[in-house]
From TrEMBL:
GO biological process: fructose 1,6-bisphosphate metabolic process; fructose 6-phosphate metabolic process; fructose metabolic process; gluconeogenesis; sucrose biosynthetic process
Self-association and partners: Homotetramer.
Pfam families cross-referenced by the UniProt entry: FBPase (PF00316), FBPase_C (PF18913)
Organism name: Chondrus crispus
Keyword Coiled coil among UniProt keywords: no
Family according to the record: Belongs to the FBPase class 1 family.
Documented EC number(s): 3.1.3.11
S-adenosyl-L-methionine in keyword set: no
Protein's name according to its UniProt entry: fructose-bisphosphatase
Fructose-1-6-bisphosphatase class I N-terminal domain: residues covered: 12-208
InterPro entries per UniProt: FBPase_C_dom, FBPase_class-1, FBPase_N, FBPtase, Fructose_bisphosphatase_AS
Length: 345
């Protein structure tokens, strides 16, 4: 019978990360400290999200960001929360956020004056349009190692240090503030899903070694933009809705928070798409803090992620806020799309 203490002997995220560190004999513990800061920032953000209606944190902040978007109060709160916590870890040399135009140079270590050897890019609050309706939102992050931390002196050198292809990522993950709070992470050895136990305030391992089904039955795209799609996207979505005789059509699910749409796609399979279109020639989603970390998780889970022309993880960023078209999900579904896209290449 349940004792009520089950959570206490579970694998927490902290234990999981420390275990990973112990397996690498040359690990300094810096990534562990940075991930602890990210974990705490997710918990703080989740607390703000859960209390937002009561604490009057819904609505606009009255400011805009470099993306041309109106910022919500929670966009700013989450951004400040992540920046403060990551800075405090003193293990990070560079931060890039959706909400800040320039790459940020972190302060040097208060102990030995060195610059942190990691760089992090984050979308502090993903799914802003869903905040006020209490629909799932999240946070996305990607972490890279900096080749030469001493070279970082200003925003330009900071941006250069993090402009690495997704394949060089050392960790990526997201938190989803949904009906429960999940933190899904990969350090390059598979994908692990944790659930926040509210009574403990700890992320507990609930989904070890997540694998995406090789084929799904769901497509996820903002179909309201269909009139502006290119031929490959139009034909592909048409093929899911009107399949050949004997095959069933796919279901449509679209939340409008990348975190929630990708989370469902990881578990149920299928495709998540944000294509380029006539109005947005590079699509909407940003490479460093949306497309690449999710592509990393997808590939680690056995799925695929492409722009239709190249694998997302192969792209070398030219701008920290660069946008890319996104097609990701089950390997067989994405292979179908790629076959179709190559017809129009
Ligand atoms: P953000 O809230 O961080 O700006 O991201 C919004 C993104 C992403 O979460 C989602 O997939 C997409 O915008 C939805 O866009 P549409 O409203 O155009 O469908
Ligand atoms: Mn935004
Ligand atoms: Mn986002
Ligand atoms: Mn955002």
């Amino acid at each position: 019978p349940p004792t009520g203490l089950e959570g206490l002997d579970s694998v927490t995220l902290t234990r999981f990360v420390l275990h990973g560190q112990r397996k690498h004999h040359d690990a300094s513990g810096d990534l562990t400290l940075l991930l602890a800061a990210v974990q705490l920032a997710c918990k703080v953000t989740e607390t703000c999200v859960r209390r937002a209606g009561i604490a009057k944190l819904y609505g606009l902040a009255g400011s805009g960001n470099v993306q041309g978007e109106d910022q919500k109060k929670l966009d700013i709160i989450a951004n400040d929360t992540f920046k403060v916590n990551i800075e405090s870890s003193e293990r990070c040399g560079v931060m890039v956020s959706e909400e800040d135009e320039l790459a940020i140079v972190c302060t040097k270590s208060s102990i030995d004056g060195t610059t942190g050897k990691y760089a992090i890019a984050f979308d502090p609050l993903d799914g802003s349009s869903n905040i006020d309706a209490n629909v799932s939102i999240g946070t996305i992050f990607s972490i890279f190692k900096i080749d030469d931390p001493d070279s970082i002196t200003d925003a330009k050198s900071a941006a250069a240090a993090i402009s690495q292809p997704g394949r060089q990522m050392v960790a990526a993950g997201y938190a989803m503030y949904g009906s429960a709070t999940n933190l899904v992470i990969s350090v390059g050895t598979g994908v692990y899903g944790f659930t926040l136990d509210p009574s403990l305030g700890e992320f507990v391992l609930t989904h070890p070694d997540i694998k995406i089904p090789s084929r799904g039955k769901i497509y996820s795209v903002n179909e309201g933009n269909a009139k502006n799609w290119d031929k490959a996207t139009t034909e592909y979505i048409q093929s899911l809705k009107y399949p050949e005789e004997g095959k069933s059509s796919y279901s449509l699910r679209y939340i409008g928070s990348m975190v929630a749409d990708v989370h469902r796609t990881l578990f149920y399979g299928g495709v998540f798409i944000y294509p380029a279109d006539k109005k947005s020639p590079n699509g909407k989603l940003r490479l460093l803090y949306e497309a690449a970390p999710m592509a990393f998780l997808m590939e680690q889970a056995g799925g695929k992620a492409t722009t239709g022309k190249t694998e997302i993880l192969d792209i070398v960023p030219e701008d920290i806020h660069q946008r890319v078209p996104v097609y990701m999900g089950s390997s067989e579904d994405i292979a179908d799309f790629e076959a179709l896209a190559s017809k129009y290449a």
